[in-house]
Amino acid sequence: MPVTLDNKLVVALSSRALFDFEEENGVFDRQGDDAYTRLQLERLDTPAKTGVAFPLARKLLAFNGDGQHRVEVVILSRNDPVSGLRVFRSASAGGLVLERGVFTRGQPPWRYLRPLGAHLFLSAHDQDVADALAAGFPAARVFSRSVVDAVRHPNELRIAFDGDAVLFSDEAERVFQSAGLDAFQSHERDHASRPLPPGPFKPLLDALHRLQKAAGEKVPIRVRTALVTARSAPAHERAIRTLMDWGIELDEAMFLGGLGKGPFLREFEPDFFFDDQLAHCESAALAGPAGHVASGVVNAPLPPPAADTTAGIRGPRRKTGRRR
User: Fold this and answer.
1) Dist CA 260 CA 223 (whole Å)
2) 8-state DSSP, 299
3) What is the CATH number of domain 156-299?
4) Is the Cβ–Cβ distance between 106 and 78 less than 8 Å?
5) Are β-strands 307-308 and 313-314 bridged in parallel, bridged antiparallel, or unpaired?
6) Digitized pLDDT (tens) for each residue of the chain, 324 residues in all
7) pTM summary value
8) Catalytic, out of 128, 162, 271, 275
9) What is the DSSP string of 226-285?
10) For 183, 279, 316, 318, which has the most beta carbons within 10 A of its beta carbon?
11) Is the dihedral of CA 257, 262, 266, 268 positive or negative?
12) Where are the domains of the chain?
């Protein structure tokens, strides 16, 4: 029978998500591809420093600890194949059992997510993340300077999600952005019994739920999930009812009503937190690994500036404070 990744949780990580290649990437930016490849080859026998997603990969692979192959971690990278040698050697030196990798030498790697059947793609490359999201895959740009504590909660894989535009669609967020908080609260109260449409990370939540069921008590690690959202009562009800409709139970839910998420995440201590707003990711990165999900209305491109018909010039572009 052919080898298949069916019925496995598949996570694809770029080289810079798994390892700290910021110094090497600086050489690429300054000197180009050839200099980067030479440097990686020179350091072939020097294990790379671990990156933001390394502890996540280690915990995911712990679900294979009883010999059952439930999780597959794949390298999906813009690196060249020669640099890929260092990636695999560094993974082996760090105790990660990785079997598969795709290296595209600068070409967009996200198109291989479909044949992999990936449930998550983490990368440091903005456009690759945007393209993966547009193709329907859960994807996030890692914050490379996130606080990482590799020894926290060794027997739990802790994943935290924002709600709107991450677990759920941005339907309600659009109401908030266009009409304000009162209209948002009224809209969610009126539609409390109607489940929200799924957002880009619902497939990952489904996969984690299936992983926990499949593993049961067979391995000494479990999944712990949390919803960390700016929603507050009465808008909390629709979020909870949506999860009930999906048949998914979260371990924790935090309805913060606009309070900063960072202090709460410092208490939860996630292995990864996913949010659609950069400000929340920057705050969360002080508590643990964070990923920006560039989806929904708050990440929509700005419209072109309107023409000033009276002066014959184009009006100024509206500022949002978002970093490109």
Assistant:
1) 25
2) G
3) 3.40.50.1000
4) yes
5) antiparallel
6) 678 898 899 999 999 999 998 888 888 889 888 888 888 889 999 999 999 999 999 999 999 999 999 999 999 999 989 889 999 999 999 999 999 999 999 899 999 999 999 999 999 999 999 999 999 999 999 998 898 887 889 999 999 999 999 999 999 999 988 888 889 889 989 889 999 999 999 999 999 999 999 999 999 999 999 999 999 999 999 999 999 999 999 999 999 998 999 999 999 999 999 999 999 999 999 999 999 999 999 998 755 544 443 333 333 333 333 222
7) 0.89
8) 162
9) EEEES--TTTHHHHHHHHHHHT---SEEEE-TT--SHHHHHHH--SEEEES-HHHHHHHT
10) 279
11) positive
12) 9-142, 156-299
**Residues 6+ away with beta carbon under 8 Å from 25:** 16, 36
Residue carrying the six token digits 């690994």: 289
CA distance 246 to 206: 9
Q: Using alpha carbons, list the distances in angstroms from residue 122 to 52, 265, 273.
A: 10, 20, 12
How far apart are the C-alpha atoms of 87 and 158, rounded to whole Å?
25
Question: Is 33 a catalytic site residue?
Answer: no
CATH number of 9-142: 3.40.50.1000
**Strands 9-13 and 120-123, sheet pairing:** parallel
What pLDDT is stored for residue 319 in this prediction? 32
Q: Let me know the angle formed at the C-alpha of 210 by 207 and 212, rounded to the nearest 5 degrees.
A: 110
Q: Which residues pair with 102 in a beta bridge?
A: 76
Structure tokens at 170: 């941005």
- Which residue has tokens 């409709």? 245
9-142 shares its CATH topology with 156-299: yes
275: which strand partners?
292
Between CA 267 and CA 284 the distance in angstroms is: 11
pLDDT of residue 222: 96
Task: Enter the tokens of residue 80.
Answer: 């060249």
Residues 6+ apart with CB under 8 A from 99: 72
